[in-house]
Specification:
The complex is a heterotrimer of chains A (329), B (412) and C (290). Chain A is built from 15 helices and 2 strands. Chain A is mainly alpha-helical. Chain A has one domain (6-258): ABC transporter involved in vitamin B12 uptake, BtuC (Orthogonal Bundle). In chain A, helix 7 (156-179) crosses helix 8 (181-191). Chain A is globular and about 70 Å long. Chain B is 43% helix and 17% strand. Chain B is elongated, with a radius of gyration of 21 Å. Chain C has helices spanning 4-35, 42-60, 64-91, 95-117, 142-164, 166-176, 178-183, 188-210, 222-235, 240-261, 263-280; strands spanning 132-134, 139-141. Chain C has a two-stranded antiparallel ribbon with strand order 1-2. Chain C starts with a helix and ends in a 10-residue tail after the last helix. The chains are: A mainly alpha (329), B alpha/beta (412), C mainly alpha (290). Chains in contact: A-B, A-C, B-C. At the A-C interface, helix 6, helix 12 and helix 14 of A face helix 3, helix 4, helix 9 and helix 11 of C.
Chain lengths: 329, 412, 290
């Protein structure tokens, strides 16, 4: 399948990895860490939504589970942060598989699927807001312990490299999916589920696997969030904000592409910062500009930024190849 | 609210912050100056959630802070630093911890000497933690979660009270008021919002109320926002507690109070703790009937201090309401200015030391001189207010009281 | 808790609240049924409508029930223009783009309101807002009872428009079979815009019904959006009756769950009900089989 090779991915990651060596600015590093985190969460969404065509409005369910499991295991059971993080990913994957099993077996698709995932995320949010184990309304504060053993660091750079590594892994996973038979089945389901079923693809199982992988990647984002900010509550973990971020980045960047979520996350976050700079301190004005630009981006790049780039590349190639033709008259 | 004055305020803010923004940009380009020229301005970070769900409180907080900065500058700036003016670096936390975090990073880059604000506990927790990386002094304006000051962070100071103190004071005062009235109240129902402050408070109240001789009939948690309180009010009507104890934000409180009025539900008293509207001039002005006799145990200014009344007038002249976010932030800025004076320097470490030793009494709160232990101002405590007539009076403690409590509520 | 003294008022209150939910969902279901888009801007548009209702009283002295007469055509026009000139062209027909466009619109509208009117909560203190209809077993707030009646009327009117008028028939044709409708000469772009306009008009009415008992601030629409989505899917996307019945049903579910589980946990009832219905009846209670 067309798409960046593993070598491309390694190159991009290597370039990004040099950033902490080029700048000591915490502002820049923090900005990039958040952008990469959103790219990671969006990449998770992309597996199910971009490649599988199943748009989820409830990816917060996986993000929040990853975050809460990581936090709860540390604070209530004294488990070390790293295994807690790994278990957070597993927890998210489990929730993904469970939700997938329920919904795909009932044949829910399209908008119905999207809204049912939203409902699941809301159910988890409400439960988390009253259950004692999640701290209910008070949330969970992770004890400050700036040592690598506790998955906390004095400087921002290690956090940056970790989220970059997680993102790299997700990029590789997506590329491998692209090149595999599973990936072909997944895209077949996206393009025409009935036809795929007719040629023998086990569509329910394919969607279920995609959902589980998708959930695991997003859960990793959740676990990282909680280690970086050291605080979680039900609105942060399972709130609509992260479900929206999860789909915004890939759609803006280009669904169903390896680099789409990364491009989208960088564009969207940079846009946020630019609008803050332009609008000054008037509350709300920056977001008005932000929303307006978002609409414009969609209007002018309907296939996302990746699509725009591919378009430009195509036009450039056609330009070059059309010159000899014209010379021949 | 008059639009004219709102626009003036905004323009004023834009002017002030255009300077602040320019300074921030310059700060990003230059490394934060370690050696300041005498008389050059001191940058102060002013962080609030001015957009997003908490925008009203954030904007009120920013208002209080900027008024204080204007006053200090008008009075000649920081004398110990050669009359240096304070330059606010305004930040919008966008009602999220990530937003607050990003702003702290920018403020740090811009070379601020200290940061004031945060408002919400979740924002304060993350913002103060980030500030701690740079040994940047952080003064919490409101955030009441107890764990804000129990993390062992040297840079974090909280001027106002935390949960534990608020709950204990509320209960102590309730017992006293009840005793003084001849103990008319025995049964209680708690109606609280389900996020950090409401849940935390409800937990403490549930633990301590029975010990003080009250029976909690039921505790009703509700989300923010809540669209409808009819069921909650039905339960209150059915179980008829002597006292209703609400702990929620402004909008929900208004809805609850109005629904109670609609359903003709009237208990012996409404004793709010950190009530969103119970001690709000806005509420009293807009719903005089529903507001009558409501008691609150909340952040409040010292009513006998002429400075607080002068500030009240100033704020109201700008067409805004004199809410707790305003006077608490105002006091926090004055506290930091005092620390700057005593430190004689804008160096962060010296400011932290100055705050640790602070005995500042020039604020408008009923706390007495400040005394910080582990970052918590020991004298900080809420006071009891009651809506009487069309005004909010302090009914407890005696030293600050301007009226006697009316309890139980007279029948409608 | 099972005592009728509490149960009956709770159910009645649920019905009254549910009626308004239903009206909000009505607009959304029309938009979904015809345009097949999930309109993320619905909440922000409701907020805008509530601000409009508030200022109609503040600046023009119009009682909300009268303001509805003015605001309904105004918001119809707004919705029409939004779909015709912003959403339609920007989206290029792709579903995911419509999603983003409506999302972007929601952000613009909500924050424009924040910027223009500030963050504080505004309320209308109308004299009749505290009047109640005394049914003996329950006190029902007068504005809410009026609201219930108005919603039924609006639903009926909408149903009549869809069944009897030419535009209504065109709308139903486009909803059922867009290509065929286009081939029969129906201007699909215009029909889309009319439908969106009808949806927004419903919001204007809902806003006027809510404002006597509720409050306005730039974020208020968000509180109703999720519920509206839930009802739309529950009732069957595109079904007017479904939205109304779904609204009443959800209103009662919310009320009873709030009663038995507490207001916080009780919210879960809405979403659990939603999930259960979808798992067993994927096209909703009254929707057509997919």
């Amino acid at each position: 399948m067309r798409g960046p090779s593993i070598a491309h991915i390694v190159l991009v990651i290597a370039m990004l990895a040099t950033v902490p060596l080029l700048t000591a600015s915490s502002v820049v590093l923090n900005f990039l860490i958040v952008a990469l985190l959103i790219a990671l969460v969006g990449q998770g969404w992309n597996v199910l939504g971009g490649y599988g065509g199943q748009y989820s409005f409830g990816h917060a369910a996986f993000f929040g589970t990853g975050a809460y499991v990581t936090a709860i295991l540390q604070m209530r059971y004294g488990i070390n942060a790293w295994p807690a993080f790994a278990l957070g990913i597993a927890g998210g994957a489990l929730v993904g598989a469970a939700i997938g099993a329920l919904t795909f077996r009932s044949g829910l698709k399209g908008s119905y699927f999207a809204l049912v995932t939203l409902a699941f995320a809301e159910v988890l949010r409400i439960l988390a807001s009253v259950a004692p184990i999640t701290g209910a309304g008070v949330g969970i504060l992770i004890t400050l312990d700036l040592r690598p053993q506790a998955f906390q660091f004095q400087s921002r750079a290690p956090f940056y490299w970790i989220v970059l590594a997680l993102l790299a892994a997700s990029l590789v996973i997506v590329r491998l999916i692209e090149q595999s038979r599973f990936g072909a089945w997944l895209v077949a389901v996206r393009e025409n589920e009935d036809a795929a079923k007719a040629v023998g693809v086990d569509t329910v199982r394919v969607k279920l696997v995609a959902m589980t992988i998708s959930a695991a990647i997003t859960a990793a984002g959740g676990g990282f969030y909680v280690q970086y900010f050291l605080f979680i509550d039900s609105a942060i973990a399972y709130g609509p904000w992260i479900s929206i971020e999860a789909l915004l980045a890939p759609i803006v960047g280009g669904v169903g592409t390896v680099f789409g979520p990364l491009l989208g996350a960088l564009v969207v976050k940079t846009l946020g910062e630019l609008t803050k700079l332009i609008a000054g301190d008037a509350p709300g004005l920056d977001l008005v500009i932000y929303g307006g630009v978002l609409v414009l981006i969609v209007a002018f790049a309907p296939h996302g930024i990746a699509g725009l780039l591919a378009d430009l590349r195509g036009r450039f190639a056609r330009l070059r190849s059309s010159v000899p033709e014209r010379a021949h008259g | 609210m008059s639009h004219g004055s709102a626009r003036v305020t905004r323009r004023h803010l834009l002017q002030t912050t255009a300077v602040g923004a320019a300074a921030a940009v310059t700060g990003l380009i230059n490394a934060p100056a370690l050696i300041r020229a005498q008389g050059s301005p001191v940058k102060l970070g002013v962080l609030h959630p001015v957009s997003g769900a908490l925008s009203y409180s954030g904007q009120q907080g920013r208002l209080g802070a900027t008024i204080a900065i204007e006053e200090i500058n008008a009075a000649g700036g920081i004398k110990a630093l050669g009359g240096a003016k304070i330059e606010p670096t305004l930040g919008d936390a966008q009602s999220t911890p990530e937003g607050g975090n990003a702003e702290v990073e920018k403020m740090n880059s811009a070379g601020v000497a200290a940061i004031v604000g945060g408002y919400a506990s979740s924002i304060c927790l993350t913002a103060s933690q980030t500030a701690a990386r740079y040994d940047l002094p952080y003064v919490v304006d409101v955030g009441v979660a107890d764990n804000i000051v129990t993390r062992g962070l040297k840079n974090t100071f909280r001027f106002g009270p935390g949960f534990g103190v608020i709950a204990k004071t509320a209960l102590d005062n309730l017992v006293t008021i009840n005793d003084q009235a001849g103990k008319p109240a025995k049964t209680v129902m708690i109606v609280h919002e389900d996020s950090l402050f409401g849940s935390g408070l409800a937990k403490l109240l549930n633990a301590q109320l029975p010990e003080r001789g009250f029976q909690v009939l039921e505790t009703i948690a509700h989300p923010t926002p809540t669209r409808d309180f009819n069921n909650a009010v039905l339960k209150i009507k059915a179980q008829n507690p002597d006292l209703v104890i609400p702990a929620n934000y402004y909008n929900e409180y208004v809805l609850l109070a109005r629904t109670m009025q609609q359903q003709r539900v009237r208990q012996k008293g409404i004793y709010s703790v950190l009530g969103g509207a119970a001690s709000s001039y806005k509420f009293v002005k807009e719903f005089p009937e529903a507001a009558q006799y409501i008691m609150d145990c909340n952040h409040w200014f010292d009513p006998r201090n002429p400075k607080s009344l002068a500030l009240k007038k100033k704020v109201e002249d700008r067409g805004q309401f004199y809410t707790y976010e305003v006077f608490m932030n105002h006091s926090c800025i004055l506290l930091v200015a005092d620390a700057l004076e005593r430190a004689g320097s804008a160096e962060r470490a010296k400011i932290i030391t100055a705050l640790e030793n602070s005995t500042f009494a020039g604020h408008v709160m009923p706390y007495g001189p400040t005394k910080f232990v582990n970052g918590q101002n020991q004298g900080a405590a809420p006071v009891n207010t009651q809506v009487l007539g069309n005004d909010i009076q302090v009914i407890f403690p005696q030293t600050f009281a301007t009226a006697k409590p009316v309890f139980p509520m007279p029948p409608a | 808790m099972l005592s009728p003294v509490i149960l009956v008022p709770a159910i009645l209150n649920g019905l009254l609240t549910g009626a308004v939910y239903g009206l909000i969902a009505l607009g959304l279901t029309l938009i979904y049924g015809v345009l097949h888009i999930i309109n993320f801007a619905h909440g922000a548009l409701l907020t805008a409508a509530m601000f409009a209702a508030f200022f109609a009283h503040r600046w023009l002295g119009l009682d909300p029930y009268l303001a509805a007469i003015v605001l309904t055509p105004l918001f119809f026009a707004l919705g029409y223009c939004l779909q015709r000139f912003v959403i339609g062209p920007a989206a290029h027909g792709e579903d995911r783009n419509i999603l983003l466009v409506t999302l972007g619109l929601a952000v613009v509208i909500e924050n424009a309101l924040l910027y223009a009117f500030g963050a504080d909560t505004r309320t209308l203190n109308l004299d009749y807002a505290f009047n109640v209809v005394d049914l003996g077993i329950a006190f029902l707030a007068l504005p809410r009872v009026i609201g219930f009646g108005v919603v039924l009327v609006v639903a009926l009117v909408l149903w009549l428009i869809l069944s009897l008028t030419d535009t209504g028939k065109a709308i139903r044709a486009v909803a059922k079979e867009k290509l065929g409708a286009e081939l029969s000469g129906i201007d699909v772009g215009h029909i889309y815009a009319v439908t969106f306009g009808l949806g927004t008009a419903c919001l204007a009415i809902a806003a006027c019904l809510l404002i006597p008992t509720y409050y306005v601030n730039p974020h208020i629409g968000n509180a109703f959006v999720l519920i509206a989505f839930t009802i739309v899917v529950l009732g069957g996307m595109g079904s007017v009756t479904g939205a109304l019945v779904g609204g009443l049903f959800i209103g009662v579910v919310e009320s009873l769950c709030g009663l038995y589980l507490g207001e916080s946990l009780g919210q879960i009832g809405i979403f659990v009900m939603f999930i259960l219905v979808l798992l067993f009846r994927p096209s909703g209670l009254l929707g057509e089989r997919a």
